[in-house]
Amino acid sequence: MQKNTYYITTPIYYPSDKLHIGHSYTTVAADTIARYKRLKGYDVMFLTGTDEHGQKIQRKAEEKGVTPQEYVDEIVASIKELWKLMKITNDKFIRTTDDYHVKTVQKIFKKLYDQGDIYKSEYEGWYCTPCESFWTKTQLVDGKCPDCGREVELTKEESYFFRLSKYQDRLIKYIEENPDFIQPVSRQNEMLNNFLRPGLEDLCVSRTTFNWGVPVTFDEGHVVYVWIDALSNYITALGYMSEDDSDYKKYWPADVHLVGKEIVRFHTIIWPAMLMALGEPLPKQVFGHGWLLLEGGKMSKSKGNVVDPVILVNKYGLDAIRYFLLREVPFGSDGVFSNEALINRINSDLANDLGNLVSRTVAMIEKYFGGTVPKERVSGDFDDDLKRTVIETPGKVEELLDKLQFSSALTEIWKTISRTNKYIDETMPWVLAKDESNKARLAAVLYNLAESIRVVSILIQPFMPETPAKIWEQLGINDSDALAWESAKEWGRYPENARVKKGDAIFPRIDLKKELEELEKMTIQPDESKTADKKESKPAPDNDNKEQAKPQEKDGFITIDDFAKLDLRVAKVLEAEKVEGTDKLLKLKLEVGNEIRQVVSGIAKYYSPEDLKGKHVILVANLKPVKLRGIESQGMILAASDDKDLAVLTLDKAMESGVKVS
Ligand code: MSP
Question: Ligand 1 centroid to 28 CA: how many Å?
Fold first, then answer.
């Protein structure tokens, strides 16, 4: 029998910066659904990739003195590493610089031109380079980009236009007739009321002021607008318009495009209009999820506040991070990310609720029965309620996952875990164990506990790639029938002869206070860092390993390669303010080329905020972000200091922010 297919995509990521935990959000969510559908027996196609063209990338590469291709190659490699670390199970990874993609985008553009959906004219308007978006004058807010609030550039050039306006009525009708197409519903109303009903203008779809893009085959000097190029990835990856389009035939239309709320507009207006023009079916759903924010605001690469997923995964473990991302905030709403909230979740939900349940159950089976639950069992009070709760859970989880309600699905699983923990309190196995005549009842209680955990371990698989196997090892289950997704719906599949084996705590508890102090200690302030340096440069008195010390440690020199590890940049101070509760720290908002960075600096005793505004300072841009007084500091500015005074390093000639210091 042919399997049902399921096609899910993430947006393709801009490789202009390191990805932050917010980016991992979309990918982890998509991966969870892909894993779930595979467990349900679907033939899944899960696509992710990178969106590598555009003026922004070209400029960044120029700044770095490398070709755009070299620039993207390096970042794309690190993105692929990140997905490996996060155990993302994408079936394909598309790069918009891949040959096959470029060729198909050219064919799409030509087809639309030949049939009159693309025409040549002149464009005049405002362009926001960081967002790669065109705006009309009326759309600007205070003369700035309405999406990110930054400067826009007036652009006038000969361009090709896509007849977006022609599709306006069909789009409205389609959205009205297909209420599932744009989810959540609030985003559907936003698209209809804010964009579609007021009227669509034709879209400028080529550029001539830069060349890092897909060349228009029939007009030299024009490159395809990056969103037309990027959106096409969802079908070029499947071989659309190529010799082998079997995947396209098999998987298109997509079941769901998962996207952040700020790009819903591109996916529900431009993309469907392109598909209508091509005569192809539309995706079944576009789901616009909310943003993960830091207390200070958006965590995007454009606005700073980056939280490094690699550090988080290495520090707290992959499953804890994936769990937190999907549990903490309902998918669709915005939510706040904080280390404190993360650690609290790990301690309460993972270490306490799930971890303890497993370790207590395994310990009791070992203690009372030497590791295997006997077959003679007597049922008793509370069993029925436990069984009912457990057995009803898989259906609820499926229903919620089908609607991409990750947080509620996890809540259902955790209700079962709580119910099971309560069952231990109700049945009190340690009391039963005191009386030999209760042995059969005790066996039933422990079997029921192991069985509930079996069901839970199956249901958490889509969310957590590592924990289920750890549980199965401790519970002694290796029979694949007892681990199949569908078996979670049947009570009593925990194998009769399974032998439990106590192991390490699956989620060790974290000392919240100590951990937060440690994060705080990662603080580097100009005057403190000096003392720290002094301490470290003193050789340890009992260092018997001196011969192996690196040359620079021995003679006090560093090599030019060591120095090159520092990414020093000119940064312009846009804003400065005192950090409440301390007389030492200033919070600075810095412009570093196209980026905005937030830096907390220990210079408040020597500079007032007004002194610094507008100054060009030197930023150590690749310093690991730390939190100071709960505020993220993304780098450090250089200053000279002696016992009495401190002077911030500035430039003696005007230079643009973002310029490299070497
Ligand atoms: N390249 C475009 C997408 C083209 S798709 C044809 C793009 N790339 S992006 O790298 O800026 O963003 C990729 C995804 O990450 C988007 O869905 C975006 O919403 C998501 N996120 C980026 N920052 C985020 C948070 N802070 N929180 C949640 N998701 C966020 O847009």
Answer: 13
182 lines ligand 1 (CB under 6 A): no
Query: What residue ranges of the chain have pLDDT lower than 70?
Result: 1, 16-18, 295-306, 519-561, 643
pLDDT (0 to 100) of residue 16: 66
d(CA 630, CA 609): 20
Residue 320, exposed/middle/buried by CB under 10 A (0-12, 13-18, 19+)? buried
DSSP H stretches of helix in 286-373: 309-316, 318-328, 339-345, 356-369
DSSP summary character for residue 331: B
- In this prediction, residue 251 carries a pLDDT of 98
Give the rounded distance of the alpha carbon of 32 from its chain centre.
12
CA distance linking residue 366 with residue 373, whole number of Å: 9
Give the containing element (helix H, strand E) for 430.
Answer: helix 429-432
Those residues with Cβ within 8 angstroms of residue 557's Cβ, 6 or more apart along the chain or in another chain: 551
Distance CA 264, CA 260 (A): 7
Buried b / exposed e along 55-85 (16+ C-beta atoms within 10 A): bbbbbbbebeeeebeebbeebbeebbebbee
Q: Whose CA is nearest to atom 25 of ligand 1?
A: 22
The predicted pLDDT at position 542 comes to 28
Question: CB neighbours of 285 closer than 8 A, spacing ≥ 6?
Answer: 180, 181, 182, 183, 255, 256, 257
Angle, helices 467-475 vs 439-459, to 10°: value is 160
Q: In 234-341, which ranges are E strands?
A: 256-260, 286-289, 292-294, 297-298, 335-336
Helix axes 68-85, 55-64, angle to 10 degrees: 100
- Report residue 399 as tokens: 């229903």
Among candidate residues 421, 507, 497, the one with its CA nearest the CA of residue 470: 507
Q: How far is CA 258 from CA 88, 130, 501, in A?
A: 15, 21, 40
Is 132's C-beta closer than 6 angstroms to any atom of ligand 1?
no
Residue 594: count of CB within 10 angstroms of its CB: 18
CA separation for the pair 347, 504 (Å, rounded):
16
Residue having the nearest C-alpha atom to atom 9 of ligand 1: 13
Length of the chain: 662
Query: Can you tell me which atom of ligand 1 is nearest the CA of 14?
Result: 10
Decide whether any atom of ligand 1 lies within 6 Å of the 51 Cβ.
yes
Are 426 and 381 in contact by the 8 Å Cβ rule? The answer is: yes
Instruction: Look up the pTM and report it.
Output: 0.78
Whole-Å CA distances, 218 to 109, 114, 227, 473: 10, 11, 19, 61
> Is the distance from CB of 615 to CB of 599 less than 8 angstroms?
no
Residue 298 confidence (pLDDT): 57
Output 165-169 pairs: Cβ under 8 A, ≥24 positions apart.
Answer: 165/199, 165/200, 165/201, 165/202, 166/117, 167/200, 167/272, 167/273, 167/276, 167/277, 168/196, 168/199, 168/200
pLDDT value of position 299: 58
pLDDT attached to residue 206: 95
